[in-house]
Design goal:
alpha+beta, 205 residues, 6 helices, four-stranded mixed sheet, 8% strand, rod-shaped
Length: 205
Amino acid sequence: MSLEQILAGIRAESDRLRDEVLALARLEADEILAEARRRAERESEAILDAARKEAEEIKRRLITLANLESRRRVSSAKEQLVSRAFELALERLANMDRQRYSDYLVEMLVRVAQGTEAVRFSEKDMQSIAAQVVARANERLASLGRPAGLTVSDRTVQTVGGVILSSGKKEVNLTFESALSLIRDDLLTEVAAVLFSDNPPKERG
């Protein structure tokens, strides 16, 4: 075999090996690219899924915050309106007809007083009806066979109406403000129902 034939055989073998190597390299490259694409798709889907979940969570939080803010505003509006309703109630009580108011105080003293207390009035009532109210209450108490020693205290009380009974260190607050505060929780529900519902509250039995 001549040298040229040997060289030709080597070149042919080299070309064959080169083609095989290139073919294997292409297959490997294709597999690597395919795997990379699959991995990229998985990671992309995971990222999108995480983004969707994050978006849903953000949406949920925003809705929750919006609902909380809405409830807070409604609650604040209710409180303001109910407080205003109580202010109006106090104003109406303060502007009660004077004769009716005097009768109310007498009835309250007869119902609550032990008959020996000092009765504290507002400055306004002290100058107008205090003595008359206490005298009438004592008359009623005496007619019922109960102690009738109520007196007008020289101490006044800051109130739109009503009195405070004092006996030593013990006091019984019978002012309009105190009476409303005692029933405020119940009235709060009822007044709010009137203001914010088409269905009025049921009358108490």
